[in-house]
Amino acid sequence: MNPALTQIGTQMSNLTGVRAIMKDINETLRAGAGQELNNLSAGNPLILPEVEQLWRDCTAELLASSEYGEVVCRYGSSQGYTPLIEAIANDFNKRYGLNLSDRNILITPGSQSLYFYAANSFGGYTNSGELKQIVLPLSPDYTGYGGVCLVPEALIAYKPTLDIDETAHRFKYRPDFNQLSISENTGCVIFSRPCNPTGNVLSDDEVKKIAALAAPYDVPVLVDSAYAPPFPALNFTEMTPVFGNNTLHCMSLSKVGLPGERIGIAIGDEKMIQVLESFQTNLCIHPSRYGQAIAALAINSGALPIMAEQVIRPFYQNKFAVLENTLETAMSKDLPWFLHRGEGAIFAWLWLQDLPITDWEFYQQLKQVGVIVVPGSTFFPGLREEWQHKHQCLRISLTGSDEEIVTGMQRLAKVAEEVYQKSYKVA
Ligand SMILES: Cc1ncc(COP(=O)(O)O)c(C=O)c1O
Prior knowledge:
Elements (H helix, E strand, L loop, with lengths): L6 H6 L4 H15 L6 E2 L9 H16 L3 H5 L9 H15 L8 E4 L2 H12 L1 E2 L5 E6 L18 E3 L3 E5 L4 E5 L11 E7 L11 H11 L6 E4 L22 E6 L11 E4 L2 H15 L5 H11 L2 H28 L6 E4 L6 E6 L6 H10 L2 E2 L1 E2 L17 E5 L4 H25 L1
Parallel strand pairs: 1-14, 4-5, 4-8, 7-12, 8-9, 9-10
Antiparallel strand pairs: 2-11, 3-4, 6-7, 10-11, 12-13, 13-16, 15-16
The protein binds pyridoxal-5'-phosphate.
């Protein structure tokens, strides 16, 4: 059976970005079964025992309550499960002094679907044939944005500026406001904060500046807060969520231990929420309610934000410290390596300046010594211009054990040394 595919069918049946690399990684893992492989490529959060226990306890509470049948045996509203919507409104109103009502909140089956709704509601061709762009203000960013738009030419990303600390071997991306263009041709703006893959956190001022550029055109600004406070609170630096008329604060419960339950949350202006809600009704009626019901319990009791701050954040922050310390001792001071400032998320981002081979070739060489990371060039969706930097970076996941991270980084340092040495010799 070989059915003819439409344009959209062809596009959607392609694997984009990191999903394409994952195929290679999975094959490597399968072929290397029994071999010692340090897999530092995963985006899947680890199962932390305290977090698992929280969800077990909430499940027991739900099972024992009269609400259970209502949750799993009946359809619900497209907007989401009312007790979860109320729990979020109450928590955010108290925590951030907001005035949210239930009309400001939408629950989706994972936040990936939320970006799909938004990208195709606000980006693409209008009724009068104008192309509305989906702007990614700072590239690299989440690879999943590459696959969400049914009109691929709508996606446009901007190169950042780099703050480089040569002696410390650290760097940080900043949005380049001299290049960034938000205009009547913009449909929406999306960025992750903290950022997957880099761990960058845009400052409150940078976010406000982007929102202010978009406001005169009524352009929605989606702040992908999959790693942000109050949960999972995977920020290692101070940051405050920014709310406003044209911002859509987008959350995910995947990094608080519920990736399998698929829960995304959008908070914003009622009009934007209504558009996305209708999209959802057409697509899937509503997200599954079991995960929403246990999430409501954990938010109402206050356990979830505490778990995020006291268990989840320190766990990954320690992993970053292990990685950073290992690179400090293992990497030659004479090589031009730069680790992105670890401001949040569950990844480290390493830039090997003037790398004599591509990131893909470096990834292959690392595999030979049993270390798997993700080549960085997959994280620049929408960036149209050629940029050498794209082929000089690696994403290293903090989901390995301390030992795996230490050995992985020691081996990486050795491979880097050899690769640069070879090119110096040839030169
Ligand atoms: C920045 C970012 N946004 C969105 C997602 C999608 O998350 P989910 O669909 O599980 O909510 C991820 C997943 O890793 C992510 O890293």
